[in-house]
TrEMBL record:
It comes from the Bacteria. It comes from Knoellia locipacati. Gene3D superfamilies: 3.30.70.2390. Residues 82-167, 184-271 form the LytR/CpsA/Psr regulator C-terminal domain. Signal peptide: none annotated. Keywords: Membrane, Transmembrane, Transmembrane helix. The lineage of its organism: Bacteria, Bacillati, Actinomycetota, Actinomycetes, Micrococcales. Residues 281-290 have a biased composition (Basic and acidic residues). This is LytR/CpsA/Psr regulator C-terminal domain-containing protein.
Length: 299
């Protein structure tokens, strides 16, 4: 449509309504076309956007689904279930080393051996568990980075802790707490010519809460002319031995190859008496840790 045509169609109408020049009439016409050009696509675009929102559920009346969150629950007592440690890593002795580490952390390890040849695990550790053993498996998994869990339908709370090809080391354990005095036995042996020393020392240690074991002459026939006492212990009983040594001033610790929590107190020629209670060194403060927890994964 040309400018002349617009003039012809609108001139009479515009003049009848208000006084307008030809240029004003032409500008009004251009404005109306421009408004239509902008408005119609905007309406179409808005309609399509609303339809898309409804189609994708953004404008649905249904409540939004809450993302699943792991459930944090108190961890089971590590000593309350059995662990079988199996080795597929190819490193000789790894199962026994890990078994000792888990034992020092308070777990109950009932077996440490090589896995059957048919079993292969690539991950650092794979933990097999049953329906009642999920929390137990989650707790054990906290000892190794990259541990994976696999349900095998077993009954009870026992788990299998299988070392895989990528296993290198356990995560650092928190410093162990001193064991309860009732959790180990103390043998008292006399390695001197003085009679009655073992009996007197044992009576005093028992009065202080230690669990008595054997007493008498030293079965190893030690000769300790320059020692107050030597306290023999296995690798897992070092903290227990240190507790006993606190009661015998001048005693020295000696680690021996044994796999139990039995302490031998071997009295030497310089032993006179168990340290009086008033002269005992102060106890180390017992660390108070928050109760351990595990996070159950979403179903």
């Amino acid at each position: 449509m040309t400018r002349d045509t617009v003039h012809k169609e609108l001139l009479e109408r515009a003049r009848a309504q208000e006084e307008l020049t030809d240029d004003q009439i032409w500008r009004r016409y251009q404005f109306r076309h421009l408004a239509a050009f902008i408005t119609i696509p905007a309406v179409l675009l808005g309609t399509a956007s609303i339809a898309t929102a409804y189609g994708t559920g953004l404008m649905s009346n249904e409540p939004a689904k809450v993302a699943c969150q792991p459930v944090v629950v108190p961890a089971p007592d590590p000593a309350s279930f059995h662990i079988k440690v199996l080795n597929t890593s190819g490193v000789n002795g790894a199962a026994h080393a890990v078994g000792k580490d888990l034992t020092r952390r308070g777990f109950t390890v009932v077996e440490a051996s090589t896995a059957p040849r048919t079993l292969y695990v690539k991950a650092p550790v794979r933990i097999y568990y049953g329906k009642a053993g999920l929390d137990q498996a989650l707790l054990a998994a906290q000892t190794v980075a990259g541990a994976e869990l696999e349900f095998d339908g077993r009954s009870g709370t026992s788990i299998s802790f299988v070392l895989g090809a990528e296993f290198t080391t356990m995560l650092p354990a928190p410093p162990p707490k001193p064991p309860a005095q009732k959790s180990y036995k103390v043998n008292v042996y006399n390695a001197t010519w003085k009679p009655g020393l073992a009996k007197a020392a044992m009576a005093e240690l028992v009065a202080r809460g230690f669990t008595p074991g054997k007493q008498g002459n030293d079965p190893d026939h030690s000769f300790l002319p320059d020692d107050v006492a030597v306290i023999r212990h296995g690798p897992d009983a070092d903290l227990a031995a240190a507790q006993v040594a606190r009661h015998i001033k001048g005693a020295v610790l000696s680690e021996v190859p044994r796999n139990n929590m039995v302490i031998d107190v071997v009295l030497g020629n310089k032993f006179e008496q168990v340290t009086p209670s008033a002269e005992l060194p102060p106890r180390e403060a017992v660390r108070k840790d928050p109760p351990p927890t595990v996070s159950r994964p979403c179903d």
